[in-house]
Amino acid sequence: MSVIVQNCRTCGGQWFPARLLCPRCGGADLAPRSVERGVVEQLTHLGDVVIASVACDPEPLLVARLHGPVHAGDVVELTDRPDASDRAEASGRPVAFVPPSGGPREELS
Q1: In sequence order, what E strands does the chain have?
Q2: Whole-Å CA distances, 41 to 29, 52, 103
Q3: 30-83 tens-digit pLDDT
Q4: Is residue 88 within 8 Å of residue 79, measured between CB atoms?
Q5: Model pTM?
Q6: What is the C-alpha to C-alpha distance for residues 88 and 68, in angstroms, rounded to an integer?
Q7: What is the per-residue pLDDT across 85-108, written as a single tens digit (0 to 9) for each?
Q8: Cβ distance 72 to 26 under 8 Å?
Q9: Residues near 12 by Cβ (< 8 Å), separated by ≥ 6?
Q10: pLDDT of residue 55
Q11: 3-class SS at 87?
């Protein structure tokens, strides 16, 4: 399981969702990178739904829907597949679902 983030080959920054240019250095040499896990920083409970900010090492900070019992500071597996709750039940570990961003879009003129 993993989430695809964008990695700047010029400065090493990682971004999600995908961008046309690196927001840190302005570079255009961007490549996809797979991130498998992150650490839960903050949680918000909305009824039965749990949304969290999940920090990846070294970046980015993702917003994800959590599946499975989890607390701030826990390491979670990241996935961009919508069957995350099934995966959490099968593995017994918490899973964070991050919807895929698609590619960067050209600005409308």
Answers
A1: 3-8, 14-15, 30-35, 37-46, 49-55, 61-67, 75-79, 95-97
A2: 30, 7, 26
A3: 999 999 999 999 999 999 899 999 999 878 999 999 988 899 999 999 998 877
A4: no
A5: 0.80
A6: 6
A7: 776 667 777 888 888 876 554 444
A8: no
A9: none
A10: 95
A11: helix
